[in-house]
Amino acid sequence: MRYDAGEVITAMVTPFNEKREVDYEKVEQLAYQLINTGSDAVLVTGTTGESPTLTHEEEIEILCSAKRGVGANGKVIMGTGSNSTETAVMMAKKAEKEGVDAILSVVPYYNKPSQSGIIEHFSAVAEAVELPVILYNIPSRTGVNMSVDTVKTLARKYENIVALKQSFGDMDLITDLKMNCPKDFTIYSGDDSLTLPMLSVGAHGVISVASHLFGKEIKSMIRKSVNCLVTLSLMFFVFLFVYACSSDADYSAKIEDIDRNLLIKSVAESDVFLDFILEHKLVMEQFMVYTRRLSDTELSEFKYNVNDDEYIQKIVEVTNLSSLLQSLEIKKNCLLADAGYGKLNQEERKILFMNYFEKPMYTAVKTRGEILNLKCYEQYTAECNRAERQCSIAVLACACVGSCACVLAAYLKLNDDLANAKRDFENCQNGK
Predict the structure, then answer these.
(1) Count of CB atoms situated within 10 Å of the CB of 213
(2) Which of 208, 232, 381, 386 has its CA 20 to 30 A from that of 125?
(3) SS3 for 115?
(4) Which of 24, 136, 188, 341 is catalytic?
């Protein structure tokens, strides 16, 4: 992706006071609220933001107010489009000067330019700034539809033309765009009612109006539907491929394997699995910080008393783990209750965790240059990954947080396993 503005961008309204003047304080407040209720970015001075009724000075002040409200918690995009190329370029430059994150530029309206005219218009905008530029195609308002070839030409020619807001309900057109434009070029739904169907054919998210009220719900819908829709689409095309390539004898088995693999992948990408993993890692890291401070004698005492509830309770209090363990229990129960996870057998659950720990998560030395033997390093990372994977499964298997000993025992074993892996690595490096 050339530029990630997030999945939910709110096309923000512009608040006015009773005197029909822009209420800049309310602009700031609204931008803050939107970022904290599910929006990844806000788009100011678009059509929803009353751009046809604003002066250029008001537009810039709205941008500055929104930036104050958003702070470092999200992105601010500004609608700088015009049917005048000169004006579109001027506003893009002003927005860039004010530190906007990206601009949205609409197809020139009323003029009904030719496709070559549209290319010339957006070329001038893209060449005038270094900002990410999001194209905006809305034929019902502009009177002309920007063709796939036009979008493709612009996206390939200009690296800073990063995305398209598409407000036109032709799914075949979205498919053509995905097939013909660069892979890192992003498509957004420009109509709330089109979001789900556009996601099904490859859109990344939505530039929404409904997110003023339902930002979190829309964000959740996108994340869940993308996993589901992509999985279903992939299953369909893989189905056709297998049908074409397989004999009747092994056809059914191959389809079943594909189905199971896709199920594992969908669970791996689900919020409940990631929430559990992240919470588990948070508790583990805090526990490790504590144990690293212990002497060998103190650590041995800990291991000896791990089944002593009174002793463990003191450890929980000392390490401030109580709230984290409770949160971990909630995340664990959510994963166990998830329908997708429930469909996995024991072997598939093992594969799920193995897939998560594919990448090396531990570094034995500061740089690769210090590694004398790559085989030793690979062996070390494999052992560490295996140890943390087993720890995650053990934590998940613990009956309840009321028995903290179970969770802490899993982390103690991980401690030992990592220490053994490090010792084996050092021995390997020394040729032992």
Answers:
(1) 9
(2) 208
(3) helix
(4) 136
C-beta atoms surrounding 82 within 10 Å: 21
* Domain ranges across the chain: 8-217, 225-266, 271-429
pLDDT along the chain (432 residues), means of 10: 93 95 96 95 96 95 96 96 97 97 96 96 98 96 94 96 92 87 94 86 92 90 67 50 51 52 76 83 83 85 82 81 84 84 82 64 40 68 83 78 73 88 82 70
Q: Is residue 356 annotated as part of the catalytic site, yes or no?
A: no
Q: Is the pTM of this model over 0.70?
A: no
Q: Distance between CA atoms of 413 and 391, rounded to whole angstroms?
A: 8
Q: Is the dihedral of CA 201, 203, 209, 213 positive or negative?
A: positive
How many CB atoms neighbour CB 56 within 10 A?
Answer: 14
Instruction: Report pLDDT for 358.
Output: 52
> How would you class 8 by CB atoms within 10 Å of its CB: exposed for 0-12, middle for 13-18, buried for 19 or more?
buried
Helix (H/G/I), strand (E/B), else coil: 359? coil
The pLDDT of residue 303 is 83
| Contact of 227 with 269, CB cutoff 8 Å | yes
For tokens 């009323």, name the residue. 110
In the residue annotation, 243 being an active-site residue is answered as no
> Which residue pairs, CB below 8 angstroms and at least 24 apart, start in 48-56?
48/11, 48/12, 48/13, 48/209, 49/11, 49/12, 49/13, 49/14, 49/79, 50/13, 50/14, 50/16, 51/79, 54/14, 54/22, 56/90, 56/91, 56/94
Q: Which of 67, 75, 94, 165 is catalytic?
A: 165
Best CATH choice for the domain 8-217 from the list 3.20.20.70, 3.20.20.10, 3.40.190.10, 1.10.10.10: 3.20.20.70
Residue 156: predicted pLDDT: 95
What spatial distance separates the first Cα and last Cα of the chain, rounded to whole Å? 46
Q: Which residues contact 334 (CB under 8 A, 6 or more apart)?
A: 272, 275, 276
pLDDT tens column, 135-160:
999 999 999 999 999 999 999 999 99
